[in-house]
Amino acid sequence: MQLFYQPDVLNGVTELDPEESRHAIKVLRKTEGDLLRLVDGKGHFFTATITEANFRRCRFEVLETEKEKQRDGFRHIAIAPTKNLDRIEWFVEKSVEFGVDRISFVLCQNAERNVLKTDRLIKKAVSAMKQSLKARLPQIDEMVKLQSFLSHCDLPHRYIAYVDFDNPIHLRELVEPGQHSVVLIGPEGDFSEQELQQAISSGYRKVTLGESRLRTETAGLAAVHILNLFG
Predict the structure, then answer these.
(1) Against a cut of 0.70, is the pTM above it?
(2) Best exposed site among 53, 139, 150, 223 by fewest CB in 10 Å?
(3) Domain boundaries 74-229, corresponding CATH code
(4) 3-state DSSP call for residue 83?
(5) What CATH class has 3-67?
(6) Distance CA 222, CA 171 (A)
């Protein structure tokens, strides 16, 4: 099933943007009267019929609206972006496929990247949402300093993944079904001791993601998967 993205269907918008229109008409060869399956990224699926097969502005009429079943838990990952943009794009793509609800990017002392544009990441997220047949697009935040993130995040269950030898508690041992949780993932050089203490003072609990030392993006995806199992 091919999904098309139009975030404003419920606001009365009944046409696809140029990129989606071109794919529907030029690539898939859809014509007037053919059915479309759409998502708005806000939890709704739509069945529609094409009323104008224009490859620049494909118009449609909504026939049916269906709401995606919402899970009880909320999965939020705050992660330091990697130097290699491809790796963070991979993380975003796979996290959306698993079912993350929000991704925040944090600037840490051992940062590999100080600037991050989210436009391309959002496009990757939209593509992953459609590919995995989901109707909800995760919130993707601009990068902020870790201290700012710690002072503004108010989810009740907060964890910081930190690599050391005095860290016996695995994340999976603490997460329960339906939890609203955030997991902090540091850069390749990990969080500094000062950042760790700031997080703990802000209500974060130190956890491990396993015995192996993981790359940043792998650790982020592992955290998403663990949270998703209980979501």
Answers:
(1) yes
(2) 139
(3) 3.40.1280.10
(4) coil
(5) mainly beta
(6) 10
